Each structure stands twice: as structure tokens, then as C-alpha cells.
């Protein structure tokens, strides 16, 4: 049952991440990506901190602080910087497909580090989900700007950061719990983004924020950071890194559905086929075949 809850939490986390893309796209016209990350993770820490303090006994021990802070820099600073930089060179569709290599990278790195065995069923499920994402993004993959490969490589590097975070963070999450761990890690990464924003003067346009911009920033902090990454850590505590990572393929699907619902973007056949394929792949990778009964054996 714990595995099922872990996979469900990971899928919900990725779906929320997909909806956050809409809020990010809205805010990017008002402030730069560095400031968006600062708001997202800064507000996320403010919301998580009271909950973490209530679990004081589970706060990461001091010996874990350097490692947790390092993981926070990897996931909450390096990842968003690489993610945003990649979209300077490539399209959103190509970037989403490159990010969907996360479960494949997690599976390979986990096997190389001896954290998680490589199985044929899991590999099949991962490849099927990547195929599903490619189908869903089919219409957007045709157009590629010159030098798009640079953005694709940056997005794969971002996915590698996320894969390493998912693998290396598990023992720390188990020792302290998902809320205290996520709070400390997010604070470390968010602090770097805030300092960078202050040095660049990225917060200057905030003086002209209206209600819509503040709503978008608060949504990103509450749902796109606090809830999304708490659920991600919750999932890592209960299931394997690959089974958590495979849920990231839901992210572009959720973003496309939000675009259809709020922006009037058309729902094409390839999106619907991609949704079915993605969830089929998740089912293959996260379930185990039933053992044969004695009377069924040859």
C-alpha cells in the first residue's frame, strides 16, 4: 500500500508542476526567471517552515545539514537555472520531451550506484512513457530553432540534477521526514536564487505588480513549490526513485490540459493518445506481474 501512495503522490506532484507552467508563463512577462524562482521557493519555504518546526524532533540532524543543503542547491537552484536557460535555445515541446528523459536517467544512475536494480519491466514502462510524451508533443516537435540542441542538452542536464536529487535524498528523507527535509533543502536553493535576484535587480518590477501577478506568485509558492515538492519527497520516502521519476512524464500532459481549459488550445488526437500511452507506461513500470500459482506452472 505504501508503494501505491508513493506513486500516487508523485503523479499528483508532477500534475501540479504541469499547472505551475501556466503561472510561470504568465509571470515571465512581468519579472525575469530568476525572480520567479525566488518567489516560488521563497514563499514555499515560508509556508513549509511552520509545519517543519512543529516536527522539531524530526528536524534533520546537524551532521546531515551540509548534505541536505547541497541537495537543495542541486534541485532548487541548479535545476531551475538550467531549466530556464534551456528554453532560451529550444522550444517548450522539445524541452518537455528532453525533461521526460528523467525516469530513464534515474533508472540508469540508480542501477549504476546499486540503489535500484534494472529490470526489463521497469525499462519497458519508462520507454513507453517517453513515447507517450513524444506523441503528445508531436505537433510542437516539428519546429526547431537554430541551435536547439544546446537547449535540449541543458534540459537533459537539468533532468540529471533531478535524478541525482531523487536518488541521493532518500536516506535523509527517511531520517527526518519529507516536510523538514524539503524545507531545509528548499531554503538553501531559494537563498541562492534570492541573492542572485537582488544582485541583478530582478525584484524592481515587483512595484508594479497587480492582483493577478501576486496571485500567480502565491500560487507558484503554495502549490508549485510547497505542495509539489513535499509530495515529491513523500513519494521518495515510500517508493523507488525510478517509480517517482516516471511520474514527471505527467507534467507536460497536465500543462497541455491546462492550456486547453484556460487558454482555449485545441485537444488533438495525438495529445489524447499520448495521455493513454503515458499512463500505460506508468502502470507497466510501477506494477509487478502476479506470481504463478502452483497449478499454473508447467
Describe the structure.
By secondary structure, the protein is an all-alpha fold. The protein has one domain. Helix content is 77%, strand content 0%. The longest helix is centred in the last third of the chain and has 28 residues, at 211-238. The radius of gyration is 19 Å and the shape is globular. Its main location: membrane. Residues 5-137, 150-286 form the EamA domain.
Give a quick summary of the entry:
It is found in: Membrane. With 298 residues, this protein is mostly helical.
Provide tags for this entry:
single chain; 298 residues; mainly alpha; 14 helices; globular; disordered C terminus; EamA_dom; AA-Vitamin_Transporters; transmembrane; membrane; EamA domain-containing protein
Write the layout of secondary structure elements.
Layout: H1 2-27, H2 33-54, H3 65-89, H4 92-99, H5 102-112, H6 120-136, H7 138-141, H8 148-168, H9 170-176, H10 178-200, H11 211-238, H12 241-245, H13 250-263, H14 269-286
Helix pairs in contact: 1-11, 1-13, 2-3, 2-10, 2-11, 3-8, 3-10, 4-8, 5-8, 6-14, 9-10, 9-11, 10-11
Number of strands: 0
Structural class: mainly alpha
What is the N-to-C succession of helices and strands? Answer: HHHHHHHHHHHHHH
Helical proportion, percent range: over 70%
Which word captures the global form? globular
Number of domains: 1
**Gyration radius, rounded:** 19 Å
Strand content: under 5%
> pLDDT under 50 segments (min length 5)?
292-298
Q: Distance between termini?
A: 31 Å
Main sheet overview: none
What's the mean pLDDT score? 83
Number of helices: 14
